Amino acid sequence: MLVVAENPAPRRLPTLAVWEDEKLAPGRKLTMVAATFPDVPGFTCDSWCYESDVEFIDARALPGGNLQLRHRWRAHPQVLLVTVVTPEPGAVEFRAHLEHAEGQGEMPAELPFVNLCWQVRRSPQFASAPDPYPGFVKRCFIFTAKGRVFLHQTTRRKIPVRPADDPYNNPPWVQMYVGTWVSLPQASPGSWADYSPDQYVTPVIGVVSRDGKHLAALANDSATTMAQAWHDCLHNNPQWLPADAPPSKREWRLKVYTMPNDPKALLERVRKDFANAMQHVPPDYKPE
User: Fold this and answer.
1) Which domain covers residue 226, as residue numbers?
2) Per residue in 30-74, pLDDT tens?
3) CA distance linking residue 222 with residue 203, whole number of Å
């Protein structure tokens, strides 16, 4: 454990901490932000910050139960990725921006791809174990034109890099998804996952607890791709916004939510928190 934030209201706010996972990827230390939510019994989720071309520098606690993490962009060592993690009732916000290591200087025109790997492996009611992994897929969901759809109900194409008869392809254990407003990409033969032709109407992806009483989800208002992957993990990929702002003025932002298993309530919360999250959702949309 590296840092534990001092929670000013532990009965109301999630408690945040930073720790290093040395088991998931032997020989590497993965920087995790843990969030323990008081309103969902036994629920702690972990966010690997980040599965990207960045190197962890340090983390510190901030007032109000917040955390700050700093990473160095390997491709441009003079550029720092600074993330502030903020607890809210029923949610945790990740908000990142770029800084020049020397305080000022020119920023690259292309910004880094920030890939937060959000995991529920340490929450018994949400994790895949001890069930076979496809059972976890059946509890994960997105929102398509049909409403909330669990991922085993979507068309899931086989993993390109694995043989068609591989156990991980029968059924496919992993899958990528794209929004309805973008063209469906074609995965390369060496890709770790293919793209489902079932596309989402809002950048929200989540999982329901094994007992069906609660849900946990990731959301933003800009992701054109999302994924469900190997480590009981979901990926919800915000873009740097505003798109027309200088690199130093853009932000990367997403939220983690937990609540009773009510998809309508989830979308209402997302609508309040993200101005453009529902822009592609039909006016008469029914999430169930």
Assistant:
1) 3-273
2) 999 999 999 999 999 999 999 999 999 999 999 999 999 999 999
3) 7
Residue 285, token pair as written in the block: 């949309």
Sign of the four-CA dihedral 84, 118, 255, 185: positive
What are the DSSP E strand ranges found in 106-145?
117-119, 140-144
Q: What distances in angstroms separate CA 217 from CA 94, 165, 170, 269, one per listed residue?
A: 13, 32, 26, 11
Which residues, at least 6 apart from 58, have a Cβ–Cβ distance to it below 8 Å? Answer: 69, 70
DSSP-assigned states of every residue in 237-284: -PPPBSTTS-GGG-BEEEEEEEEES-HHHHHHHHHHH-TTTTTTS-TT
Assess if residue 283 is contained within a domain: no
- What lies within 8 Å, CB to CB, of 65 at 6+ separation is 5, 6, 7, 8, 9, 13, 14, 15, 16, 86, 87
> Residue 33 is which amino acid?
V
With tokens 């000022």, the residue in question is: 104
Query: What CA–CA distance (Å, rounded) separates 120 from 176?
Result: 18
| pLDDT tens per residue across span 99-125 | 998 877 888 989 999 999 999 999 999
281 occurs within a structural domain: no
Contact of 5 with 19, CB cutoff 8 Å: no
The answer to the question of residue 288 being in a domain is: no
